[in-house]
Specification:
18 helices, 2 strands, disordered N terminus
Length: about 450
């Protein structure tokens, strides 16, 4: 089945769990709660859910259709469907973006391993001291990359699909257990009200833009991940249903993460506007005040590590698929070489949390520290640019009519009517909204 390293999903469930695993990660469990807290709670949640299904889902379906039609990586997909030599540049951007994001994402993911160890073996270090320790930073960064490499080496069905079938259900179970516990805490009602009772007076233009951005980034769009995953989908599968399932799973995990965190925060009288340090700086203090706090803390950081691993696997798969398809490398060679290169690229990010002064104080685009700079360049800029051009390509170059032929396979008459609306969104609405997000990021609106 895998002569050159390329494979196929063994089942629809395997694909949905793997693709959902790609979308579900630190962005859902770490970023989503603090963005929600900073933007007023429940009203932001409603905006976010609307953006997922009206803007992000059409782009997701477009990427999956590109992948399945060509059965190629992002670069190969653009080459196959366009005579122009310019469009494959969007695929190259996706491959580069995948490596760039993985290089700093794995650093943050390594922190989850560190906090698992710190829960088992208590430490007197605070978070700032922990991230400034070069041995811990580099060690946990390397360990997480090796875990990721191990899964990707297994290939599509034996690696990504097999592990996702275990990791994703485990994630749901851990989330559910923590939610049930946190809802029983005294004072949890205030957190539930903040999270579920909308105050529409808190909605501003910046709130809407934050919701659009979170929806777009949380679904791993714009860098070719879903083109790559789509290339492994059988012709027997229904792309719109599979894509909607991924979006629902991703949004559900984010919603549950908020339901887990806000009752706990309010129960100990803390503010929800803690910012990016919320998980690593605040939650350990919350857990310390709970009965069986060490057990809860251990479960939470295992959960966070699972979420991070399913995302790092998809990030590594994009450049690996490119090497397998375009360079005819074996999967083993591609995985090992790309992992090693990512480690070297990520070292400055790992050393930019107080270890090396120059890496820590370097300021570009208003971002201080190499990790923050890498996050801004590859997440805030590269992803919207990629998503914008993918929408234009599917809507106007490859064309919605040809995309329909791929999407209508194994669909019902009702689904065919819904897909006519998808064409309008992918041609007009999605590019305009993504452009709005991009411009707002650049101008700092």
């Amino acid at each position: 089945m895998e002569q050159t390293g390329r494979g196929i999903w063994g089942s629809r469930l395997g694909f949905i769990l793997a693709a959902a695993g790609s979308a579900i990660g630190l962005g859902n469990i770490w970023r989503y709660p603090y963005i929600t807290g900073q933007n007023g709670g429940a009203a932001f949640v409603l905006l976010y859910v609307g953006c997922v299904f009206l803007i992000a889902l059409p782009v997701l379906i477009a990427e999956l259709s590109l992948g399945r039609r060509t059965t190629l990586d992002p670069v190969g997909a653009f080459k196959a469907l366009s005579p122009s030599k310019k469009w494959p540049m969007v695929g190259y951007l996706g491959v580069i973006t995948g490596i760039g994001i993985l290089s700093f994402y794995a650093v943050v993911a390594g922190w989850t391993l560190g906090y698992i160890v710190r829960t088992i073996i208590p430490s007197t270090e605070d978070f700032a001291q922990f991230v400034a320790n070069p041995f811990e930073e580099i060690g946990y960064f390397a360990a997480f990359l090796l875990l990721t490499m191990f899964v990707v080496l297994g290939g599509v069905e034996k690696g990504i699909e097999r592990w996702s079938k275990f990791l994703m259900p485990a994630l749901f179970v851990l989330l559910g257990a923590l939610i049930i516990y946190n809802l029983t805490l005294p004072g949890a009602g205030a957190g539930i009200e903040f999270y579920l009772k909308p105050d529409f007076s808190k909605i501003t233009a910046s709130t809407a833009l934050a919701a659009l951005g979170q929806a777009f980034f949380s679904l791993s769009l714009g860098m070719g991940t879903m083109i790559t995953y789509g290339s492994y989908i059988s012709k027997k599968e229904n792309i719109p249903i599979s894509g909607a399932s991924v979006a629902i799973a991703d949004t559900t995990i984010a919603f549950l993460a908020g339901l887990m965190i806000f009752p706990a925060l309010f129960s100990v009288g803390m503010e929800p506007t803690q910012g990016p340090a919320l998980v690593f700086n605040v939650l350990p203090a919350v857990f310390a005040q709970m009965p069986a706090g060490n057990v809860i803390s251990l479960a939470f950081f295992i959960l966070l590590a699972i979420a991070a691993l399913t995302s790092t696997v998809s990030l590594l798969e994009v450049p690996v698929a490119y090497m397998v398809d375009q360079k005819k490398w074996s999967r083993k060679k591609a995985t090992v070489v790309v992992t090693a290169a990512t480690f070297l690229i990520g070292l400055p990010s790992a050393l930019s949390q107080g270890t090396v002064e120059w890496f820590s104080n370097l300021t570009v685009f208003g971002q201080q520290g190499v990790l923050s700079i890498m996050s801004f360049v590859f997440s805030d800029l590269s992803l919207p640019i990629g998503g914008f051009f993918i929408s234009l390509f599917v809507g106007w170059v490859w064309g919605v009519d040809k995309a329909y032929q791929e999407l209508l396979l194994n669909t019902s008459p009702m689904m065919a009517k819904i897909l006519s609306l998808w064409g309008i969104f992918v041609r007009y609405i999605c590019p305009l909204v993504i452009l709005l997000i991009l411009v707002s990021k650049i101008l700092g609106i």
